[in-house]
Design brief:
alpha/beta, 4-stranded parallel beta sheet, 10 helices, 36% helix, 14% strand, binds phosphoric acid mono(formamide)ester
């Protein structure tokens, strides 16, 4: 695969599926340049961004805000709890209003899968939509920061053995990552409970037991158990999950010396990963959070390029 220095230009970012490999590599490289202080950036005029989070978030919300402020954007406060959403305003009408007010970019997290479709199909709404997570659908900025973290570590994706582990069916992170990782040449494995796996994912990789793959992977990507999306959950034992599927010290010791552990966070300590391993030498969980700011600067820049 050739890494290009192309300038990326986007109208919206709602799913990884519409990004080309060149777009992905361009955003990663630009994120790395922002991180290294090597990126020249100047706004051509005043731009406004609003972060509209209708589901809880720490990392995505606050790292977009930091990224926006680092780029010099004016950030418009929005709190769903005190907005006219409480008076029955629809998401469409909230974004129509933001657009009418002159907000250039809306970063949105919402519980409805593909909430963004009617917004980007609208002929009236002019604001660019950046998807900060839609239901169990997509989480493209998380995927791009994950890819940046892998690229910084290995300098490639081709031939890397990557295991995505845990609550895969409910995870927008897994869904955003599986297709693009395969497209970039990685060899994918899935581990975790069979009931949180769908045979539709077989086109991207193989479902295996974690103990059959732990000593071979370059990247172990753990996922949060998403209780809020489990509608009829049988009794769940944290201890049993950790023992059967989680990363404990014994499994950690079997990882290759060059292997890394990732998790989008928030982490359920002692469930997906043992408490003492969250900040262990092979863990890149803190690096992922740091990279989130820089890759989001690159995403916002690509959106601004689309407006030039
Ligand atoms: N990884 C992630 O999306 O974290 P938040 O829910 O805190 O934004």
């Amino acid at each position: 695969m050739t890494v290009t220095d192309g300038v990326v230009s986007l109208k919206h970012l709602v799913t990884m599926e519409t990004l080309t490999n060149e777009d992905v590599l361009g955003i990663i490289k630009r994120g790395i340049a922002f991180k290294n202080g090597a990126a020249d950036f100047q706004l051509s005029r005043q731009y406004f961004a609003a972060n509209l989070f209708f589901e809880s978030s720490t990392r995505t919300h606050k790292s977009f805000e930091v990224a926006e402020k680092k780029l010099g954007l004016d950030v418009i406060e929005f709190d769903a709890k005190t907005s006219s959403v409480n008076k029955g305003e629809t998401l469409y009408d909230t974004i129509l209003t933001m657009s009418a007010l002159g907000v250039d970019i809306c970063v949105i997290r919402h519980s409805e899968d593909e909430y963004y479709q009617e917004l980007i199909d609208s002929r009236t709404i002019q604001t660019s939509i950046v998807n900060g997570g839609d239901g169990s659908g997509q989480h493209p900025s998380q995927s791009l920061l994950d890819l940046m973290t892998i690229y910084q570590e290995f300098g490639r994706f081709d031939g890397l053995k990557i295991a995505i582990s845990g609550d895969i069916t409910h995870s927008r992170v897994a869904k955003s990552n599986m297709q693009i990782l395969k497209r970039l040449g990685a060899e994918l494995y899935f581990t975790g409970p069979e009931e949180w796996y769908d045979s539709a994912f077989d086109v991207y990789g193989h479902h295996v037991a974690i103990d059959d793959i732990i000593d071979q992977v370059d990247v172990l990507m753990l996922l949060r158990v998403q209780h809020e999306r489990h509608h009829s959950e049988k009794s769940f034992s944290k201890e049993a999950y950790h023992e059967q599927f989680g990363l404990d010290q014994e499994r950690y010791n079997k990882l290759k010396s060059s292997a890394i552990i990732m998790h989008p966070a928030p982490v359920n300590r002692d469930v997906e990963i043992a408490d003492q391993l969250v900040e262990a030498p092979k863990s890149r969980i803190v690096a992922q959070m740091q990279n989130g700011v820089f890759v989001r600067m690159a995403i916002l820049e690509a959106i601004l390029n689309g407006k030039a």
